[in-house]
Automatic annotation (TrEMBL), chain A:
Lineage: Bacteria, Pseudomonadati, Pseudomonadota, Alphaproteobacteria, Hyphomicrobiales
PANTHER family according to UniProt: ABC TRANSPORTER PERMEASE PROTEIN, BRANCHED-CHAIN AMINO ACID TRANSPORT SYSTEM PERMEASE PROTEIN LIVH
Sequence similarity: Belongs to the binding-protein-dependent transport system permease family. LivHM subfamily.
Top-level taxon: Bacteria
Keyword field contains Transmembrane helix: yes
Name of this chain's protein: Amino acid/amide ABC transporter membrane protein 1 (HAAT family)
Signal peptide from the UniProt entry: none
Entry keyword Cell membrane: yes
Transmembrane segments: 12-30, 42-60, 66-84, 96-120, 140-164, 192-211, 268-285
An annotated Gene Ontology molecular function: transmembrane transporter activity
Stored Pfam families: BPD_transp_2
InterPro entries from the UniProt entry: ABC_transp_permease, BCAA_transport_permease
Source organism per UniProt: Tepidamorphus gemmatus
TrEMBL record, chain B:
Keywords for this protein: Cell membrane, Membrane, Transmembrane, Transmembrane helix
InterPro entries to which the protein is assigned, alphabetical: ABC_transp_permease, LivM-like
Presence of keyword Iron: no
Highest taxon in the source lineage: Bacteria
Protein name: Amino acid/amide ABC transporter membrane protein 2 (HAAT family)
GO CC, alphabetical: plasma membrane
Range of residues in the leader sequence: none
Biological source species: Tepidamorphus gemmatus
Top-level taxonomy: Bacteria, Pseudomonadati, Pseudomonadota, Alphaproteobacteria, Hyphomicrobiales
Membrane-topology descriptor: Multi-pass membrane protein
Localization per record: Cell membrane
C-alpha cells in the first residue's frame, strides 16, 4: 500500500512537470490560436539561454549573480518571442490554420538546426537552481526539486488563470484564440497577442526546463518533452490553463502505474505508449479535452 | 496556359496530362535521360537519385493525403517504416518482389486506416495529432515486440532483391528498380486529380461540410485519403528495405516525416509537379551543402557531420517558412508562371 501511494506521489509530481510544459502550449494557443509543435525546441532554447547566462558565461570568466542571469534569460525570451512574431507569424495572420500549423512544424526544424549551430549538439550540465535531494513525509520519500516545481506549477496556474480570465488584456487574448479575423474586427491587436503569447510561452517553457533539468544534463534531445506534453495539453483542453496541471497529474500517475505494473509484461512499451493512447482516446471521445472550448461548426 | 493557336475539340484532349506534342516530347526526353543516366553517372550520383526516387514516392503519398484531401499527416515516415518492415518480413518468407511490394503497400494502408478512424469525430489539427501518435508509437512498439518478430533494437536484414532468380544488388540495378516503381507511382499521382476519387478528395479539402451536402461520403473519403497516401508510403518503404538491405526504426523518425511535409510545401501542395519540384529542390540543397562541407573539410576547415545536419535543418526550415509566407502555392506555381512566360514569348504576359 505504501509502495502504491509512493508511486502515486512520484507520478503526480512528474505529471506536474508535464503540466508545466503543457501550460506553455496552452498559453501560446490561448493567446494566439497557434498550435506550436515546436514547443520542445522552445524549451531547449530557454534552457540554453539560461545555461549561457550562468555556466556559459562562467566558463569564459564572467561570473554573475543568479538573479541577474535569470533576468537576462527572461530578456532573451522576450526578444525571442518578439522576433518570432515579427518575422514568422505576423505575415501569417489571417492565413488558414493549416499554414500556421505548418509554420510551427517548419519552426521545429529551424529552431533545432539553429540551436545546434549556435550551441552545438554536445551535452552540457545545467546549473543547479532548485535544491537537490529528497525529504521524508511520513513514510514517503519526496523529491525536493519536483516538489518545489509542483508547488510553482500550481501557483503559476492560478496566476495565469487570473490573467486570462480577469484582466482586460487577458480577455482580449481570448478573442484572438477564437478567431484572428474576429479579433481584428473587434479592434484587438493580433500582433501584440501573438508577441505576448510567445513571450509567455518561452518564459513558461524555461520555467519547465528549470524544474526538469536543474542540476542535470541538457542536450537537444530534451526537446522530446514537448511531444510528451502535447497529449497532456490536449487532455486538459487546449484553451484551459487550469486543465493542464490536472491532466498532467492524470498522465503522470497513469504513466507511473503503467511503468510499475505493465512494463515488465510489455518489454517497457506500456508507459511510453500510454500518453499517446490517452491522446487518441481524448481526440475520439472528447476532442475539446476536459475543460476546452467546444466548437460548433455551421455551413 | 496553352501556347497560342492550340485548342481542343474534345474533352478527352482537354483532360490529358501532356496536352501538347511539345509536352510529350519533353516528357519523353526526361524519361530517356533518366534511362541512360547509369551510362555516364557514377555510383554516388545513382545512389542519390535512387534515394530521391524513394523520397518522391513518399511525398506523392503526402500529396494525396495532405495536398488533395487536406488531412495533415505527420507520420508519413512511420508509414514508410511500416512498409519497410513489412517488406523485410515478407521477403524473409521467400516471396517474390512483385508480391512483396504490393503486399507491403496494402499492409501499410491498412495500418494507416487505424489512425484515420478518428476522422469520424474530429478534423484538422486534432486529426494531425493522431498521426503524431502513430509516429511516436511506431518505434516504441517495434522495439517492444519480441526481437524474433521484427528485429527489435538490432533491426532486420532484408533478403536481396531477386527478379526471376537473378540477384539484383548493384547501384545501377537498384536505380532501375526504383525508377520503374517511381514511374508507376508518378502515373498514379498525376492521374489522381483527374479521377472521380481525386475530385471527391478535393471537395473534402475545400469544405467538408459542403462536400457532405453534395453527397460525398466525407468520412469514407478521409479514411481513403489516408489509405491512398499510405499505399505510396508502403511502396517507398519496400523500396527502402531493398535499397538499404537492413531496416531499423532509427531510419524512420518524426524528423523524416517533417522533412517529407517540408518538401511538399516548398514544392507546392496542390499538384504532383510540386512534389517533384520540392523533392528535387531539397535534395539539391542537401547535396549542395554536403558538397560545400566536404570542400571546407578538404580545405582544412572545421566542419562536422552535426554541423552539416544543422545547416540542412536551418535551410529546410527557412525554405518552408519562406514558402508559406511568400509563395504558399510553392515552386509549382513559380514553375507554371515561368512556363507561361516561355510559351507566350515574345508577347508580354497579361
Amino acid at each position: 500500500m505504501i509502495k502504491l501511494i509512493q508511486i502515486l506521489i512520484e507520478g503526480a509530481l512528474v505529471g506536474l512537470v508535464y503540466g508545466l510544459v503543457a501550460i506553455s502550449f496552452v498559453v501560446i494557443y490561448r493567446a494566439s490560436r497557434i498550435i506550436n509543435l515546436a514547443q520542445g525546441e522552445v524549451l531547449v532554447f530557454g534552457a540554453l539561454f539560461l545555461w549561457t547566462f550562468t555556466l556559459g558565461l562562467r566558463s569564459i570568466g564572467y561570473e554573475m549573480p543568479l538573479l541577474v542571469a535569470i533576468a537576462l534569460t527572461i530578456g532573451a525570451c522576450v526578444a525571442f518571442g518578439v522576433g518570432l512574431e515579427r518575422f514568422v507569424f505576423r505575415p501569417l495572420i489571417g492565413q488558414p490554420a493549416f499554414a500556421i500549423f505548418m509554420a510551427s512544424i517548419a519552426l521545429l526544424i529551424l529552431l533545432r538546426g539553429t540551436a545546434q549551430l549556435i550551441w552545438t549538439a554536445e551535452t552540457r550540465s545545467f546549473p543547479v537552481i532548485l535544491p537537490e535531494g529528497a525529504f521524508n513525509l511520513g513514510p514517503f520519500l519526496i523529491n525536493t526539486r519536483l516538489m518545489i516545481g509542483g508547488l510553482f506549477t500550481v501557483a503559476l496556474t492560478m496566476a495565469l488563470h487570473l490573467f486570462f480570465t480577469r484582466s482586460r488584456r487577458g480577455l482580449r487574448l481570448a478573442a484572438v484564440a477564437e478567431d484572428h479575423n474576429t479579433a481584428l474586427s473587434l479592434g484587438i491587436s493580433v500582433r501584440a497577442a501573438i508577441a505576448i503569447a510567445w513571450i509567455l510561452g518561452a518564459i513558461v517553457a524555461t520555467c519547465g526546463a528549470v524544474v526538469l533539468l536543474s542540476g542535470r544534463i541538457v542536450s537537444l534531445e530534451v526537446a522530446h518533452i514537448g511531444f510528451k506534453a502535447l497529449p497532456v495539453a490536449l487532455l486538459g483542453g487546449l484553451e484551459s490553463i487550469r486543465g493542464a496541471p490536472l491532466a498532467g497529474i492524470i498522465i503522470g500517475v497513469g504513466e507511473a502505474l503503467a511503468m510499475t505494473y505493465l512494463d515488465p509484461h510489455t518489454n517497457g512499451a506500456a508507459s511510453g505508449i500510454l500518453p499517446y493512447l490517452v491522446m487518441v482516446a481524448v481526440v475520439l471521445i472528447r476532442p475539446q479535452g476536459l475543460f476546452g472550448w467546444k466548437k460548433i461548426e455551421r455551413l | 496556359m496553352l501556347p497560342t493557336g492550340i485548342h481542343f475539340e474534345r474533352y478527352a484532349a482537354e483532360a490529358r496530362i501532356l496536352k501538347t506534342r511539345r509536352a510529350q516530347i519533353w516528357a519523353a526526353a526526361l524519361v530517356v535521360l533518366l534511362l541512360v543516366m547509369p551510362q555516364f553517372a557514377g555510383n554516388y550520383l545513382l545512389g542519390v537519385f535512387t534515394h530521391m526516387f524513394i523520397t518522391l514516392m513518399a511525398v506523392y503519398g503526402l500529396f494525396a493525403t495532405v495536398g488533395m484531401a487536406g488531412q495533415i499527416n505527420i507520420a508519413q515516415s512511420a508509414f514508410v517504416g511500416i512498409g519497410a518492415f513489412a517488406a523485410a518480413k515478407l521477403s524473409g518468407y521467400g516471396l517474390p518482389v512483385f508480391v512483396v511490394v504490393p503486399l507491403a503497400a496494402v499492409i501499410t494502408g491498412l495500418v494507416s486506416i487505424l489512425f484515420a478512424l478518428p476522422a469520424a469525430r474530429v478534423k484538422g489539427f486534432y486529426l494531425a495529432l493522431t498521426t503524431l501518435a502513430a509516429q511516436v508509437m511506431f518505434p516504441i512498439i517495434i522495439l517492444a515486440l519480441p526481437s524474433s518478430w521484427l528485429g527489435g533494437l538490432v533491426g532486420m536484414p532484408v533478403e536481396p532483391l531477386r527478379i526471376a532468380g537473378i540477384r539484383l544488388s548493384s547501384p545501377t540495378q537498384l536505380y532501375y528498380f526504383a525508377l520503374i516503381l517511381v514511374a508507376i507511382l508518378t502515373v498514379a499521382a498525376f492521374n489522381l486529380p483527374r479521377s472521380r476519387f481525386g475530385r471527391a478528395l478535393m471537395a473534402v479539402r475545400d469544405n467538408d461540410i459542403v462536400a457532405e451536402v453534395m453527397g460525398i461520403p466525407v468520412l469514407k473519403m478521409k479514411i481513403l485519403a489516408f489509405f491512398a497516401g499510405s499505399l505510396f508510403a508502403g511502396v517507398a518503404g519496400a523500396c527502402t528495405a531493398y535499397f538499404l538491405q537492413f531496416v531499423t526504426v532509427d531510419s524512420f523518425t518524426l524528423f523524416d516525416s517533417v522533412w517529407y511535409l517540408g518538401m511538399l510545401i516548398v514544392g507546392g501542395i496542390h499538384s504532383p509537379v510540386g512534389a517533384i519540384l520540392g523533392v528535387v529542390f531539397i535534395t539539391a540543397v542537401q547535396e549542395g551543402l554536403h558538397w560545400g562541407a566536404t570542400a571546407i573539410l578538404h580545405a582544412g576547415g572545421a566542419a562536422s557531420g552535426g554541423m552539416l545536419f544543422a545547416l540542412t535543418s536551418v535551410a529546410l526550415g527557412a525554405a518552408i517558412l519562406i514558402a508559406l509566407i511568400f509563395e504558399p502555392r510553392g515552386l509549382a506555381h513559380r514553375w507554371a508562371v515561368l512556363r507561361a512566360a516561355f510559351q507566350l514569348w515574345p508577347f508580354p504576359r497579361n
